[in-house]
């Protein structure tokens, strides 16, 4: 594709439709009635195929991206999100970190992402985009307003996917050495009712421990292991030694047993 438009991208991706793969993806991403991905529609493309489309679309104007983000097809929305990631990363390089034009353009991308967050509506879409757009944006100068207030708005939403964005975006802040974002939203979402958030909380805590401080992770567990969802705890301690994993699981089990008496 040479200088494609959003319509060109959608038509090309539709031409790659794979029915067998589509059925598998519909099951894997839980699109049945009452499931978390209910109603999501797939073409049956594999992620490397979508990434190749992104590579060929590097010159797509930002104004074309919303048409991809609101598309009915999951893979097209992923393509749009990965194009935004690519755009954002070019504007986040050290040499343009404080450049006024780069700040303006990064803010435009972050605003577009937030405005279309309802279409970032499955865990893979969140996980492949939120850290590299919102997470990176949190660590950079902005004219959009208070970073924390914006992420708090996501965390306080009724939308599972906005809530997951608020948690998973902290992968990047932890990678940059700042544990405060992870700890804030891990505590915020600690007793969330959905298993997908239990996994996100545990995963981000694990990454914070690995990237920033295992002592901070242990401090968090001392406060919360007794009433954390078991899935979150398992994810959080996954990279610890077997002996330490047993310690935390036993501590949690003992506390749960005491509470049930």
**Shape by Cα distribution:** globular
Structural class determined from secondary elements: mainly alpha
Approximate helicity band? 55-70%
Mean pLDDT: 95
N-C termini distance = 66 Å
Strand content: under 5%
How many β-strands, per DSSP? 0
* Annotation field: number of helices: 16
Radius of gyration: 20 Å
H/E element order? HHHHHHHHHHHHHHHH
Main β-sheet: number of strands, strand sense, barrel status?
Answer: none
Describe the structure.
With 261 residues, the protein is mainly α. Helix content is 65%, strand content 0%. It is built from 16 helices and no strands. It has helices at 6-15, 19-28, 47-56, 65-69, 74-91, 100-115, 123-127, 130-137, 147-155, 160-168, 170-175, 180-188, 195-211, 214-224, 230-236, 242-260. The radius of gyration is 20 Å and the shape is globular. Residues 257-261 have low confidence and may be disordered.
List keywords for this structure.
16 helices, 261 residues, disordered C terminus, mainly alpha, single chain
């Amino acid at each position: 594709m040479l200088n494609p438009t959003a319509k060109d991208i959608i038509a090309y991706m539709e031409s790659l439709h794979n029915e067998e793969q589509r059925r598998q993806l519909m099951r894997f991403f839980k699109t049945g009635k009452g499931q978390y991905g209910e109603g999501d529609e797939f073409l049956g493309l594999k992620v490397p195929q979508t990434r190749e489309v992104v590579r060929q679309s590097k010159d797509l104007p930002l104004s074309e991206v919303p048409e991809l983000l609101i598309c009915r097809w999951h893979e097209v929305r992923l393509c749009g999100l990965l194009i935004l990631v690519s755009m954002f990363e070019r504007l986040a390089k050290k040499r343009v970190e404080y450049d006024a034009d780069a700040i303006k353009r990064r803010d435009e991308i972050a605003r577009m992402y937030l405005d279309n967050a309802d279409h970032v509506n499955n865990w893979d879409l969140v996980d492949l985009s939120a850290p590299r757009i919102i997470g990176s944006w949190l660590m950079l100068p902005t004219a959009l307003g208070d970073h924390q207030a914006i992420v708090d708005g996501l965390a306080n939403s009724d939308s599972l996917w906005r809530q997951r964005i608020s948690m998973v975006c902290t992968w990047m802040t932890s990678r940059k050495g700042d544990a405060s974002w992870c700890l804030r939203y891990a505590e915020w979402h600690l007793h969330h009712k959905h298993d997908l958030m239990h996994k996100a909380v545990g995963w981000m805590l694990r990454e914070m421990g690995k990237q920033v401080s295992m002592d901070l992770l242990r401090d968090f567990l001392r406060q919360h292991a007794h009433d954390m969802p078991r899935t979150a705890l398992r994810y959080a301690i996954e990279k610890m030694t077997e002996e330490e994993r047993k310690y935390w699981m036993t501590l949690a089990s003992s506390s749960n047993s005491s509470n049930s008496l």
